[in-house]
Amino acid sequence: MNWGDATQMALPFNPEYGLIAVFCVVLVQQLGAPLPVLPVMLFAGAQSARDPFYGIYALALAIVASTLGSLPWFLAGQRFGHRALKFTCKVSLSPDSCVRQTETVFERHGALTLLISKFVPGLAHVTPPLAGAFGFRLPSFLFFNAVGAVLWAGAGLILGLFFYAEIDSLLGQFVAFGGHALAALALLVVTYAAYRWIVRRRFLKSLQASRIEVAELQEMIGRGDAPIVLDVRSRTHRKLDGRMIPGAQALDLDDLESPLAQISADRDVVVYCACPNDATAVKVAILLKRRGIRHVRPLAGGIDAWTRAGLMTERQPL
Q1: In which residue ranges of the chain is CATH 3.40.250.10 found?
Q2: FRET partner for 267 with CA separation of 20 to 30 A, picked from 50, 97, 147, 175?
Q3: Is the whole-model pTM more than 0.90?
Q4: Model pLDDT, residue 47
């Protein structure tokens, strides 16, 4: 069976509808749905072996869809700052540490992060709001996001072009199995989503640790217990937010040795962050316990819980 016959029989990959599929799948995926885009781009690339203009149209539609899907998140980041980042992780299937990881990458590479983010699951959904929160101007974001979309979508199209014969054969087998093939494809998509959900649940289970509530920490400070309070948010997050619990020490995860060496094993230590499920704070608390610091607990709800309780904060030192 040749490519023309196969595509005429397989409606989802028919050239007449394939470009619509490219636009819709890329748009929905960039809005936050855990949909795999690569298969659609591969089939579009294979079709461009017969019609070079098809690949050009597919690339253009992917860029437009990527821009339309990323722009609302960028604008949300501009308006709501780090709160938009937390919401992004809550609605995705990515582990809750995606905010911290993306902030770290952004600190090191700046705008270049937009060029590579679409290749990394989870990173693509957090980078646009982070760019908005970090003060990127709209023209700069649109430019770098578009270049990233060209690299990302172009890679899939080129792979499809190189392996068009194999894709032709695969599509022929897909058509031969008819409804069974569609059911198998649906099963693969459901399996992928289920796998991501299981990974997330296992991650959340690993974060189970005794936490200290805001009221208890306030009471300890009021009694003069002088607990060591560690702010383990990224430098980017502290800069964007500006709030700190009074007396807290900023702790960067890439420079732990010197600060941790100064903490005695019998001191009370409280660790806080501003990420979903206190993910970073829990990880640091586990690390401190492994180093022999016995009385260490994450602050439930982090800096946001402290602020909601109406307690005083201080500004991040410049």
Answers
A1: 214-315
A2: 97
A3: no
A4: 83
